[in-house]
Amino acid sequence: MGRYQKENYTILDCFLDTAKKNPDKPFVVFEGQTYSYSEADRLSSRVGRSLWEHACVREGDVVALFLGNEPSYLWLWLGLAKIGCSAALLNSSVRAKSLLHCFSCCQARALIVSAELKSAVEEVLPTLREQSVSVFVLAQACGTEGVESLADKIARASDEPLSPALRANVTLRSPAVYIYTSGTTGLPKAAVVNHQRLWGASCIQAIAGVTAQDVIYVCLPLYHTSGFALGFTATIERGATVVLKGKFSASQFWDDCRKYDVTVVQYIGETMRYLCSTPKRDEDRDHRVRLAIGNGARADVWREFLHRFGDSIRVTELYASTEGNISFINYAGKIGAVGCVNLLHRRAFPYSLIKYDAEREEPVRDHRGLCVEAAKGETGLLVSRITKVAPFSGYMGDLQQTEKKRLRDVFQEGDLYFNSGDLLRIDQHNFIYFQDRVGDTFRWKGENVATTEVSDVLAMADCIQEANVYGVKVSGHEGRIGMAAVTLKEGAQFDPIGTCGQVTSYLPAYARPRFIRIQDSLEITGTFKQMKVKLVEEGFSPDTVSDPLYFLDEKEKSYVPMTRQIYNSIESKDIKL
């Protein structure tokens, strides 16, 4: 633990030490090309020097990164860290209003975009120029006014080490990255991840048993905590090797593992299910993978994964959130669990499961106004006490949403807890199980979807008056898929083609409501909150929903009437969601 506690010794410092000790050790492998630790050191120095000179960013500034998985992503962050800057990791799927919001809320001075995503930035370029934002594209040249090329500048820059004086005031509590998480606001929130929290992610990888000899396959997006912190930066401490994949591919996954001698893989529930759904092959167990680290694995899929790809693989399921102050690791390997109650862990990071009223969407409180602890075996809302050891840094530029995650007067007047927004359960043997999310967010395809953002997009359609968005279960799938109950404007007819165009233009694929039901009015509570519980329970079956019901048919580029045949095809997985 000495490295974590050493004053202001960051992951960057660890990287620089590793590059000196093992300069020729492979650090990153991408599409057959290998970069050593020393090469990464020199490349990131070029990046840092280029941004210092051409973007005029200085210690404490924020630079937004808008690109997919590629080695440049890693050099950019290391280079920014070398000059004392932090990076805002923009989701490469966001567009238009969401893109501007994500950029603005972290108060970034500059934006770096890949050539593939340049057109998305050009859509909002007038606004960025009004805000005097420097925009750079990772290309040798650029003909767009207001956008500068960066790759050519990096190529010309010196790769000499950058002076530590450029980051002299950076501490472990300084922001390292801003990672976006969806929530009840309807727009993504920028969670502040400081250098201390990056060490925490590194610790999780160490507890899972990763060593310097491991080769780690990172196919999850680098703009998420799993890919960036648990995959990339956590690898640095051990001096291991990262095999970076541009995008997850179930058909190429094991071929890549064999080709690059991968020993550790990352997963989320959906990726594990996709792997189990691929056609069986004779070489399914022919690999060197010994460890899988991730979250969201359903018990049945977990069993199938081990049965098919090898019982020798150790699956280490964990529970954590980007902004949260509590995490669990299932080091015992109990199938389906996210962890186990550990008294030392609970003493250091006090947490509890409390009774939660799903109808009222709030914790249950007793006659004293205090929360009530859930009984063993009962599902409850996870809350974790906010302390110096377990702080909650909140969201950049959003005090209102930061305050919403703080729960006061939990077990005694004046105490303060972090509200995870997640429902968990502890069984009689003290194993901890994730049950569901609460509030106005649901998870689909490994992404959190804010219902109010989707509602706002639907309400922009000419025919729709109001929308109530929620997630519904689909058999055989992790998470919940998007559905919306909508009312129509007076005298208007539902426009299936126009509405489809609206959601596909403004929402990433995982956030688009696949089902729409037309209602005369939306049911609300006494405090004017939209009622979702009954709608969620009724789902999307035409047998249980009497309202007009539609399905998003992407081939037809339209919402089509929901039929029993479509429903059966979804249940049998003939229709892929």
TrEMBL record:
Signal peptide: none
Highest taxon above the source species: Eukaryota
EC id: 6.2.1.3
Topological category with respect to the lipid bilayer: Multi-pass membrane protein
Keywords attached to this entry: Cell membrane, Fatty acid metabolism, Ligase, Lipid metabolism, Lipid transport, Membrane, Nucleotide-binding, Transmembrane, Transmembrane helix, Transport
UniProt GO cellular component terms: endoplasmic reticulum membrane; plasma membrane
Gene3D superfamilies membership: 3.30.300.30, N-terminal domain of ligase-like
Localization terms from the record: Cell membrane
A GO molecular function held by the record: long-chain fatty acid transmembrane transporter activity
Main localization (coarse): membrane
Catalyzed reaction equations: a long-chain fatty acid + ATP + CoA = a long-chain fatty acyl-CoA + AMP + diphosphate; a very long-chain fatty acid + ATP + CoA = a very long-chain fatty acyl-CoA + AMP + diphosphate; tetracosanoate + ATP + CoA = tetracosanoyl-CoA + AMP + diphosphate
Ranges where the AMP-binding enzyme C-terminal domain occurs: 454-529
Sequence ranges assigned to domain AMP-dependent synthetase/ligase in this UniProt record: 17-329
GO process terms (BP): long-chain fatty acid import into cell
Enzyme class name: ligase
A Pfam family hit: AMP-binding_C
Protein family according to the UniProt entry: Belongs to the ATP-dependent AMP-binding enzyme family.
Name the record gives this protein: long-chain-fatty-acid--CoA ligase
Organism: Aldrovandia affinis
Taxonomic placement: Eukaryota, Metazoa, Chordata, Craniata, Vertebrata
